[in-house]
Amino acid sequence: MDAGYKVFDFSEPAAGTPAQPLLVSSPHSGAEYPDDFLASSRLDAHAIRQSEDMFVADLFADIEKSGASLLAARLPRAYLDLNRAPFELEQELFEDDLPSQFNSTSLRARAGLGTVPRLVAENTPIYDGKLAFAEAEHRINKFYKPFHTALSDKLDDLQRNFGVAILLDAHSMPSQAIRHAAGRIKQPQIDIVLGTRHGRACHMFLTEQIETFLNARGLKVARNQPYAGGYITEHYGRPVKGVHAIQIEINRAVYMDERSYRRHTGFDELSATMRALVAHIVSIPDLVAQLGGTVPEGKSAAE
Predict the structure, then answer these.
(1) What topology is assigned to 8-290 in CATH?
(2) I need a labelling partner for 36 at 20 to 30 A (CA). Which of 3, 54, 129, 136 fits?
(3) DSSP states of 7-58
(4) Per residue in 227-277, pLDDT tens?
């Protein structure tokens, strides 16, 4: 695969728009499937998309007008899962032995859902055979690391300039899976799941603000069940250091037809809600102080 391939899209506020301490990441919405990857897969071009967070980045289009930034993957999750640690690999997928520093014991890797996944969905293998470790190493070095460097650098920049950084890590979830979970956690309907690693990745004030806003828009919100936040939320969410990360899982049935992979009439309304959510967060009075931060000397809360 071409080493010059564009790994992600990064949108920031235009000149003249005051920047805000908020970044939205969409690590699973990439839909550019490399030809050599498709050729190596046992799945057709439709089935391979089952793990893709379709249209999620589009739901947050134009948030730069509110001063926020958007980092969206272009490569698909089936090729490389950016919401994993860099070395979560499953030995079963590879023809050669993995180096000792690679974590083959994580639950995600053992389930076939590691950094280079073996499965696209439950009991649905991506490949007929095994991969060479060199292929995984190539994907991690060329595509995973640049995405996370951009993510980390932007959060550092926001925290340095504003005293806090807010990361909304946006995802989608299959409606069938969420229906099963709804019964298990005794909530009849779930449209959105907010994952905060049970409060460890995000200040409670911000979580409550987001939940209240979404509920007021008619969306049914669960917190940390069945999704408490993946690697990005866990790794980057450091409230004591002024970085607050929250995973937003959106029920696909709210905005798309899961069989045809097409948007339905709910897309525009949900997109308006997501843009309004971002605008609401950055307009909260004394946001930095509410999150326990301090605006750096010589800086304003929005500039």
Answers:
(1) Aminopeptidase (3.40.630)
(2) 54
(3) -EEEE-PPTTSPP-SEEEEETT------HHHHHHBSS-TTGGGTT--TTHHH
(4) 999 999 999 999 999 999 999 999 999 999 999 999 999 999 999 999 999
CB 118 within 8 A of CB 90: yes
pLDDT tens digits for range 97-113:
999 888 788 899 999 99
Joined tokens for residue 186: 């005794």
Q: What is the DSSP string of 79-134?
A: T--TTS-TTB--GGGBSSPPPTTSB--SHHHHTT-SSS-SEEETTEESBSS-B-HH
Residue ranges of domains in the chain: 8-290
What are the C-alpha distances in Å from 103 to residues 10, 83, 100, 146, 197? 30, 15, 8, 20, 21
Alpha carbon distance 201, 33 (integer Å): 32
- Please tell me the distance from the alpha carbon of residue 254 to that of residue 220, in angstroms, as a whole number: 11
Question: What is the 8-class DSSP label of residue 64?
Answer: G
